[in-house]
């Protein structure tokens, strides 16, 4: 393939390719392996350093292998290839790639993305929670084996229950495939329905999320005192502003009651809406701090 017909890679490397690595490859006597190229766009998926090395050698053509899939899948291949061999991706490169894959493949499981990026599933989960583009309404994730599974087994059980009523002659294996749950789970759903029980076990039924534990006023004040003593905050205007804002919200139970009693009835709705807006802003700030 003529080098002039190839386009630069949609590289997962935040700082681009390493000129030093390309020179090292160019000075080597070893034959360069074929490049992986996305045929629809002619972009290099894997092999930019090899392409640069070939150019430094004065070559006009290189060996290539073509990939005909979607551009988003091509990027995943680029990440996998650079994790597996060649000049390794940095942790920052892999985290950025994971964030992008979460956006392009939101249905993929944390383990599937972890395998592609060389990160842990726990790290992917943290990145996913911090991603502003995350689709919270997704009901399934696609695992490393390519199979879609419901995020909650209760969803699959309810789907299986509905399918059994819609298709009474369907086999259990067919129901399992359409509902995205195991054959054993489908059998359990069938047996529960036969006994007149709920298809979802009690411990798997949806519950309201637990309310966050509220810190005691004494603990809040103690943390504020620590912040006020911190020189990095005390001696900067931004730091002092932060402490003032936090102090305004550190209300004890008595102050909260006094505040509630002092607001006129016709203003309560407006105050409530503003309080919700402030709470949302602080929650977003807290989430971003936890993700750094």
UniProtKB/TrEMBL annotation:
Q: Which SMART domains would you find in this protein's record?
A: ParB
Q: Which residue intervals are annotated with compositional bias (Basic and acidic residues) in the record?
A: 193-210
Please name the source species.
Lentzea tibetensis
InterPro entries, per database record = ParB/Sulfiredoxin_sf (IPR036086), ParB_N (IPR003115)
Highest taxon listed in the record's lineage: Bacteria
Name of the protein in its database record:
Streptomycin biosynthesis protein
Region: Disordered; residue ranges are: 193-215
| Database matches in SUPFAM superfamilies | ParB/Sulfiredoxin
Q: Which residues form the ParB-like N-terminal domain?
A: 2-83
């Amino acid at each position: 393939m003529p080098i002039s017909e190839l386009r630069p890679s949609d590289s997962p490397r935040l700082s681009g390719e390493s000129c030093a690595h390309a020179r090292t490859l160019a000075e080597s006597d070893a034959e360069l392996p074929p490049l992986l190229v996305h045929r629809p766009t002619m972009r290099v998926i894997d092999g930019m350093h090899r392409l640069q090395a070939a150019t430094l050698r004065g070559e006009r053509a290189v060996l290539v292998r073509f990939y005909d899939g979607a551009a988003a899948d091509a990027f995943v291949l680029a990440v996998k290839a650079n994790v597996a061999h060649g000049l390794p991706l940095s942790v920052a490169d892999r985290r950025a790639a994971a964030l992008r894959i979460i956006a392009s493949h939101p249905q993929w499981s944390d383990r599937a993305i972890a395998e592609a990026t060389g990160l842990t599933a726990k790290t992917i989960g943290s990145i996913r929670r911090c991603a502003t583009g995350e689709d919270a309404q997704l009901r399934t994730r696609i695992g490393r084996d390519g199979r879609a599974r419901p995020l909650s087994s209760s969803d699959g059980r309810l789907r299986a229950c509905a399918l059994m009523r819609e298709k009474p002659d369907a086999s259990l294996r067919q129901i399992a495939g359409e509902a995205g749950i195991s054959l054993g789970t489908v059998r359990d759903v069938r047996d529960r329905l036969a006994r007149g029980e709920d298809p979802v076990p009690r411990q798997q039924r949806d519950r309201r999320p637990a309310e966050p534990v509220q810190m005691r006023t004494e603990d809040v004040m103690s943390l504020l005192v620590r912040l006020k003593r911190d020189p990095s905050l005390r001696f900067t205007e931004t730091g002092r502003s932060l402490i003032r804002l936090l102090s305004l919200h550190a209300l004890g139970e008595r102050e909260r009651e006094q505040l509630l009693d002092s607001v006129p009835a016709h203003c309560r709705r407006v105050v409530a809406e503003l309080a919700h807006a402030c709470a949302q802003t602080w929650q977003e700030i807290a989430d971003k701090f936890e993700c750094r």
